[in-house]
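Hi there, hope your week has been kind to you so far. Do you reckon you could talk me through the fold, stretch by stretch? I've dropped the whole record in just underneath, so have a look:
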Amino acid sequence: MTSYHLLLPVTLFFFLGYVSVKILNVIYEYQKYPYIDEIFHIPQAQTYCSNNWTEWNPKITTLPGLYIVSYVILNLFKTLFQYDNYCSVYGLRATNIIGTLLNFILTISVIKRLEEKYAITSRNHLIVLSGFNIATFPPLYFFTFLYYTDVWSTSFVLLTYYLYLSKKNNKNSISKFLGSVIMRQTNIIWVGLLILDKSWQVFSKNYKFNSKQDFNITKKIIQNFFFNLKMKDKNLWDVIKIFINDVLIETYHLIFLCCIFIMFVIWNGSIVVGDKLAHSVKFHPMQNLYFLNFTIFFSWPFALIELLSMRTKIIKIKPRNVIIIIIILSTIAIGILSEWNKMEHPYLLADNRHIAFYIWKKIFGHGLYRRIIIPTYLLSGFLYYKLLIKKCHFMFTIALTLCTALNLTPQFLFEIRYFIIPYVIWRLQLKQSPIQVYAETIFYSIVNFITFYLFINKPFVWISEPDIKQRFIW
């Protein structure tokens, strides 16, 4: 990379660091004490900072990855700068800035690897700006300034993905893959996504075509497989055994990690570490529809351009009866699902500090509006697929959709933070034009400004706690 190509990423790196420190200082000025989930995370991290590794708060649901990372970073700063009060509220929050800067670097690296994989070339400044956008994705960037798991959880998932794409996924990388799970247990699903992707690569290795990897090409690969099976007079079971062996060679370390995780869940009796009753597994498929609307809302520059590019085709093409029937039946099915699967977690209804509370109250949980928006789920699902398939092969699209569903469907609580990593992985796959990326940058900046403004300038009080200011967060 030339010095010219380094200019933009280096400039944005220092700009992001500078702005983040300024925001951290302002947030700390107005909220010096642990807030919401910080009342669990900060004391636990401080317990580790005092080298007490046996004490654990049973209300914490995640594994201790965040506290271990903070311990390492803050002890390094303590050694370098001889600063005693290093494990303070401010110090712990500040470690997230390092995670955000790491997200910026890793996102750029992942996008470059994906473009190599799909033989696509984008302008360097678009890749860098996309990395900046994803690092400042509003629901993610907001939690840079509170001591939550989201920033570092995303960092380790991105690191896992980068190592996989770089083919550095050998036994020496297991600790990095393990780190993503220790940050948040549900990240094991993204390890599963890599296994599925590699399995398809192994399967299609001998049946590739030099053309667009859409559904028709996937169909041809599968047809070619069975044709070759017949022509070469091979036994299907023998071919399956060879396939399994090839997959194991490529992904044994990932499968090993999944096996360890399954044993942990069996031993623990739950995927969460603590507060198991409040975080019980529910069958909640509506979460996927909420996520689709969330995704298209935050990616509207991509969705809008896609719709505009399709408008002439939509006008000219006479819709087939079968398509009309599918649309009608899908709308009816979504309508039935929205009535049958409306779930309201007590935590959601009891806490009006979260933006999710108002989204639920005004839209998803509202009797009239949740029925009016039923067609938007169908449109969002269509755009989610169309934007993804422009760059990815069909089977990866299916695998990502499946893993996202596995991640979201068991979640009882409607929580925007659950959507962050599925969105980031989806966004990484998109083809991008200058106008889309520029519009995304402006939009994210506006949303970030609004959410920080609400947090700082619009506090309110509860009658039960008149002396404590409450603030809006995602």
Summary: The longest strand covers residues 465-470. The mean pLDDT is 87. Residues 188-216+223-271 form one domain. The first helix runs from residue 3 to 30.
